Structure formats: C-alpha cells, structure tokens
Amino acid sequence: MAAGKLTTHVLDTARGKPAAGVTITLFRVTDAGLVRVTQTVTNADGRTDAPMLAGADLTVGVYELLFEAGNYLRESGQAAGDVLFLDAIPIRFGVPDAGAHYHVPLLISPFAYSTYRGS
Question: Is 110 within a domain?
Fold first, then answer.
C-alpha cells in the first residue's frame, strides 16, 4: 500500500497571492473530543514545509484543520479590531483511505473562504 499524506496551503484570494504566516493546527476527532496532532505555520508560498501527516501517522478517521486566519488578515491590513467576521477557520474532513494523498487547501478573503480536496 502506498504511504498516504495530508497536505495543505493557504491562498489569499483578495490579494491574489499565497498567505504566509498562517498558523495551522491539526486535530484528530475522537469520541472524547479533539486531540491535537501537530501545529505549523505557512511559509512564503502559503504552504507548510512538510506534510501535516505522512506514512503510518495518517490513519483512517476524521480530522480537523484549524486555520488562524484572523492574525494574518490583521497583519496584512485587510481586517482590524478585536472581533473579525472570520478569525479561526475550522475545516473538518474524513480520511477513508490512509494510503491516499489528501490535500485540503484554504482560500481566504476577509469575508469569505472556501476549500476543496486538491491533488
């Protein structure tokens, strides 16, 4: 069986460029709640320097990526104040095949976001 992996990246659709400096936390969803797996920050290309999970660490189950977009939006001058329309953005998804590649990107602007299963 091929070794699976989970990757992500963040694109700022309002500015038309990668979103650098976004903190991303990966959780595994369990019956007891969320279990933190790892945390990283996007690089200048809006990507993580390594997969969020790879190989035997990626198992069948439900996961959640939490993107700390609010700090990025403030620092880029697109949002201000203590309360933002978008701040922490959770994306919950399932991994039915631990041998597959799951790419879960985030496309953000100050007032909207979207995601998809990429390649």
Answer: no
